[in-house]
Write a structure and sequence with these properties.
heterodimer, A: about 280 residues, alpha/beta, Rossmann fold, 2 domains, 9 helices, 12 strands, about 35% helix, about 30% strand, B: mainly alpha, 11 helices
Chain lengths: ~280, ~260
């Protein structure tokens, strides 16, 4: 569905993308993670045809972004809504711009109102909404015409639990319907819940890609034992379970606390931060 | 299953879709305008009050004083309305919504038409209201050639809209826009003879006046009100030229978006 190859983009002396390549298949959710400045938003803007790469190319369904205007749903990282316009008026505007007409438009608004739990504030103006509500409205405007490619740039940043739940449910549902989804986030557990393929961006390129299990495999976890509520033993290991058994078999004093910390995406993130710093 | 939106390629279907999107954008921008009418109302009410106050002065000072006070203040406050157009466009940048629209199926031309059409109508309406008020309350003779007056209003509103769009495309903040449009509007309109009749201004100012779009607007409107077609056409052509240059620059800039820079 989406194929980006060797994208390079420079803003003055800043190299935002440096050979960024990423592909997303129909029905696939790719979680794009990376530190601020890793190139995630620049990539989203190029795919949306808001900016042009200096080199490299992007195709969506085999065609360039210029030929796919309106077929990409984008929810940008920052809130981009009209303060004096109600939620329903936003949905009507973006629905009509996407070509939806009466029955189809009504039905799409109805569906999103339920799915993203907009009902309680659908006739309220954007200026009176909470941050989480604004996030849901923004996502709804991106989803209104069921685009084949969805670019959700940190859609749950600063959002409450209700927003997060609603958003993840809708994203899963849309992927199930066949949409290709790029989901950038700093909340890594969301990607596990979405069963997303994870692509890690750093310094303008993708440095790792795989399932959660593939990416954390090989990262060290930790086993922590406390003897008699006093002496603490910490062992960093790539095989926490085996290490725990080994430690228990050799323990000579009573153990009051056992903690096993399996490697997680947060560890992956931290390991990248360490490599960045070094 | 992805939703079938009914979109079909083909010239007639494409035209119908284009009109549909422009209507959606125009309705949307009309709603925004109606919910924030303060500036527009003030640019209609203030010249009405000033016309009443300044009419005796104009009538005593110059020939055709009634025409000059009505057209002069009309031009002056229509120039102020540039900031309405500028702010409306610049707000899309403040709200970061312009890029959302650029990602939609609507091409840049549709976005600009949908955005500017309501503002254009506001500007046309402002001038029609002021001229009607001039006739009904101030004593301006009812023009003999209404289509000529209407044409002049349309040309002048188009020029103002283009200048407003140009300003919105180049300034970095609402503060900058406010300074440029207020100082610029006052300078252009007063230099053009909208505040004080040209014949009362110093010689150098009468020569410099010709650099101001306000001067040509005044010449055009006064000729149109007098039913002088020949006298209307030259200033109308000059204003259209200014509008096309300013509009072309604004379209080029807005089509590409503002990027990430700037103060906003």
């Amino acid at each position: 569905m989406l194929q980006a190859i060797d994208l390079v983009k420079r803003y003055g002396s800043v190299l935002a993308l440096d050979g960024f390549s990423l592909s997303v298949a129909a029905g696939e959710i790719v979680g794009l993670v990376g530190h601020n400045g890793a190139g995630k938003t620049t990539f989203v803007e190029i795919v949306s045809y808001l900016i042009r790469p200096d080199s490299g190319h992007v195709t969506i369904d085999g065609r360039p972004p210029s030929a796919n205007k309106g077929k990409v749903g984008i929810a940008p990282q920052h809130i981009a809504l009209y303060p004096s316009i109600t939620v329903r008026e936003h949905l009507v505007l973006f629905g009509k711009l996407a070509g939806l007409r009466r029955a189809a438009l009504d039905s799409a608004i109805e569906e999103l109102t339920v799915a993203l739990r907009l009902g309680a504030f659908i006739d309220r103006r954007e200026a009176g909404l909470s941050g989480g509500q604004q996030r849901r409205v923004q996502a709804a405007t991106a989803l209104i015409n069921r685009p084949g490619l969805l670019l959700l740039d940190e859609p749950t940043a600063g959002a409450d639990l209700e927003t997060r739940e609603a958003m993840l449910d809708v994203v899963k549902q849309r992927a199930g319907d066949g949409a290709a989804i790029v989901y950038t986030t700093h909340y890594l557990p969301e990607l596990v819940e979405l069963q997303a393929t994870i692509a890690v961006a750093r310094s303008g390129r993708i440095i790792a890609r795989g399932t959660y299990e593939e990416l954390v495999d090989g990262l060290p976890g930790e086993v922590r034992l406390i003897h008699d509520n006093e002496e603490e033993v910490r062992v960093s290991t790539t095989q926490p379970a085996a290490t725990l058994i080994d430690l228990l078999s050799r323990a000579e004093r009573p153990i009051s606390t056992i903690e096993v910390h399996n490697p997680s995406l947060d560890d992956l993130y931290r390991s990248l931060a360490v490599s960045d710093a070094s | 299953m992805l939703l079938d939106t009914g979109y079909r390629v083909g010239p007639i279907a494409a035209l119908r879709e284009s009109v549909y999107r422009i209507r959606a954008l125009s309705n949307h921008n009309t709603i925004i305008r109606l919910r924030d009418p303060g500036q527009t109302i003030s640019y209609v009410v203030m010249p009405m009050v000033l016309m009443l106050v300044l009419k005796p002065l104009y009538v005593r000072a110059v020939d055709g004083g009634t025409t000059k006070v009505v057209t002069g203040l009309l031009v002056m406050f229509s120039v102020f309305a540039i900031s309405i157009a500028g702010n409306a466009i610049l707000a899309e940048r403040t709200w970061k919504t312009w890029d959302r629209l650029r990602v939609s199926r609507a091409p840049a031309a549709e976005l600009l038409i949908g955005k500017t059409l309501p503002m254009y109508l506001v500007m046309v309406l402002q001038q029609i209201i002021l001229l009607t008020y001039g006739c009904l309350v101030i004593g301006l003779p009812i023009p003999g050639n209404i289509p000529l007056v209407l044409m002049s209003i349309l040309v002048w509103a188009f020029t103002l809209l283009a200048i407003g769009a140009l300003l919105a495309a180049i300034v970095r903040s609402h503060g900058e826009l406010s300074v440029i449009s207020d100082v610029g509007a006052l300078t252009l309109s007063s230099l053009g003879g909208a505040l004080v009749p040209l014949s009362l201004m110093p010689d150098w100012a009468q020569v410099a006046a010709q650099l101001s779009p306000g001067y040509w607007a005044l010449q055009m409107l006064q000729a149109a009100v007098a039913g002088d077609t020949a006298g209307t056409l030259l200033p109308a052509a000059i204003l259209l030229g200014i509008a096309l240059v300013a509009g072309a620059f604004a379209v080029r800039r807005l089509t590409r978006g503002w990027g990430r820079g700037g103060l906003l």
